[in-house]
Structures are given as C-alpha cells and as structure tokens.
Amino acid sequence: MSVDSCCEVSKALGEPVAGTAIVNTFRWLLVELPGAWAPKVMDSPALQGPVREHLDRALQGLPGSRLQLIRRPSSTGKVTVMAATSSSDNQTVYRLKLKSIEQLVDIDIAALFAGGEGSESLQESIYLVCSHGIRDQCCAREGLPVFNALHHQRPGLVWQTTHLGGHRFAATLVVLPMGLQFGRVSPDDAVDLTSSIDVRRIYRLDRYRGTTSCSRMMQVAEAHLRSEGQNLGIDSVRHLSSTDTAEIFDVHGKSVRVAVRTKSDPRMRPFSCGDEKQRSPSIHEATVSSL
C-alpha cells in the first residue's frame, strides 16, 4: 500500500479512532444491491426513478435514519432488505426478501422498522464491513480481507457495505443492532471481535470508534470513561443525560460527569485518498468528576 494512503497517514500520525463513529444514527435501512455502487449511495444506477423517490420520502420521515447498500458473493438472486434499530432502548433487526429492487416501492419502510410488511425478526448480530472502493481505495483494500475473515466466523451474518465514514480508519465496520462501530480492524481481529460481541463486551478500545446513536461529544466522553477504567462491558457505561457543558453517565452504578474540550490538531492531513485538501482532525480532552 502506498504510504500516501489516507489510512496509513492517519496511523503514522497516531490519530485515535475513539469518538469518530457515525453520529445520531439509530435507524439503518440495509438494501442488497450486488451491482454497481456509485460514490454517493443514492446515485447508484439501480436506485434511480421511483425507487429513489420512495426511499428519499421514507427516510426523510424517519429521524436518525441511514441507507446502506449491502452485498456478498453468495447472493441468492433475491433482494434482502433489513431494517435495524439501534437506540439504547430498542435494538431490533427485521428482514424481508424481495424478488427485485423495484418491489421496494411497495414497502412501507416505517412499518418495516416496526416489524411489519411480513418481515422476520433476527436475533443475531449483523456485521457490516465497508468495502466501498469507488468512494475510497482504502475501504476495499482493507475491508475485503476483513469481510472474508468475518464471513468465515459468522456466515450469513456478514455483509459488505457502502461508506461508513472515516476512510482513514479502514477497515471500518458496524455491528447491528447495537450500533457499535470499529476501525482499523484487521482479519486477525475476526475471532476475538465476534466472541466479544457474543458476550456483550467491547473488543479492544483502540479499535472502538463509538456508538452510532450518540453525538460526537457523547462518543468522546464514553471512550474516555472506558479507557480510564478499562470498562469493556457494553452495559457497564450507560449515558444518562447531557448538559451544555458535559455528558452524564452511569458507570457501574455510580453517576459521573465528563466535560470535553476540543481543539484542532495542527498536523494537517488528507481525510481521503487522493484528497488534495488537507484538514485538521479534532483533538479531545476529557475531565471526569463524580456527582
């Protein structure tokens, strides 16, 4: 890999992955599309016309929603559609299989998220690995080996997917319905990562980008609390509330306040491969106090 790739530059500069997950997203619409993916999901050829119009209207009416295209080599010819909810009090995945992508226009997307439209409920975790190479070369180069390793561990539960944010943290993946996002994942991580998820533990804090239903500051504060006390249990750190200046958490039954200060890293870098624009990522400093 070229030393100029965005993920290699990020690693070389020691940029942490904590607090870099997708934010404020707790509804995931997953649509199987084996064909061409455009750099921007909605521009993909198979989503044009009535299908795109239907999806646009549906997602605009569902706060916190996001569309991901998915695929895998063992496609059956049918179109798998899944609606996953990853809020703290509602974590579900419903699956529906269609004969063609055009049938999406007849599906009430809001009803699908509630388990309607003849869908089935899935009880196991779904893994989405970004392999969106046309968006950024690092995603395919790093993501495909990770997909293959995870698919070997959890056949039928792992999908390649479109952009998950943060090319420079490739390989990046999301675990649904918990909404946990990881970065800089390698094929060697597959066994321990899936085993950790099975027992509701965070796999390696240096791989954990955050929970996608949270705000950026909530992700940063949570990461700091987990790192400070090696709190790897998914349920050991629970967000309670936010103020103008801090995030409040319950950590093993004790309420704590986390204040976050943010500044820019003066070391400019590309956020994507081939990006001529150099940008400064944020540096976060957290202060913890008891309540």
Per the CATH scheme, the topology name is Glutaredoxin
| Terminal-residue CA separation | 48 Å
How do the strands of the widest beta sheet line up side by side?
5-4-3-1-2-7-6-8-9-10
**N to C succession of SSEs:** HEHEEEHEEHEEEHEHEEEE
The shape, in one word, is globular
- Any idea how many domains? 1
- CATH class, please? Alpha Beta
The count of strands amounts to 14
What's the average pLDDT? 92
Q: Which percent range describes the beta-strand content?
A: 25-35%
What is the CATH homologous superfamily assignment?
Glutaredoxin
Q: Which consecutive residue ranges, at least 5 long each, have pLDDT under 50?
A: none
Note the quaternary state here: single chain
Largest sheet: 10 strands, mixed
Radius of gyration: 19 Å
What does this molecule look like?
- By secondary structure, the chain is α+β, with helices and mostly antiparallel strands.
- The protein has a single domain, classed as Glutaredoxin, CATH 3.40.30.10.
- The protein is 22% helix and 30% strand.
- It has six helices and 14 strands.
- Strands 5-4-3-1-2-7-6-8-9-10 form a ten-stranded mixed β-sheet. Strands 11-12-13-14 form a four-stranded antiparallel β-sheet, covered by helices on one side.
- β8 and β9 form a beta hairpin.
- The termini are far apart.
- The mean pLDDT is 92.
Brief write-up:
The protein has 291 residues and is an alpha+beta fold. It is 22% helix and 30% strand. The chain has a single domain (1-215), classed as Glutaredoxin, CATH 3.40.30.
